[in-house]
Amino acid sequence: MMGASIYGLGTMLYIDIENDDDIFGHDGQSTPPINTAIRINPKTGDGLIILETGHPDLATRIASDWVFIETGKSDTLLFTMLTGKMSNILFIGLIAISILNIGTGIWRRKRKMLPINN
Predict the structure, then answer these.
(1) Which residue of 6, 46, 84, 110 sits 20 to 30 Å from the alpha carbon of 37, by its own alpha carbon?
(2) Are 35 and 58 in contact (CB under 8 A)?
(3) Residue 98's pLDDT is what?
(4) CB distance 55 to 33 below 8 Å
(5) Tens-place pLDDT, residues 92-118
């Protein structure tokens, strides 16, 4: 489901909180984009239900943000959804740092080769 290695039609445990309690719920998705999400915190009795159209994962992202606000922890789906984006950002950053280092090396080499005028 949405990139997570979880299968089935039932309830999913998103993150453990305290005393063997978990925030639980369910997410749904279809094409064209219809995205639904529900999260329930059994400890507080708070919950969130989102029914959304037009974006393939907006309801899941909002529900995952709610879990973070409730617990201060990222739930399983949000982490899985953002792993690919984080990898791309790290790869682009690595390339940028490499280009900067090569450019600095070339600049220093040219600077050493310039004659010193007194």
Answers:
(1) 84
(2) yes
(3) 94
(4) yes
(5) 999 999 999 999 999 888 888 777 665
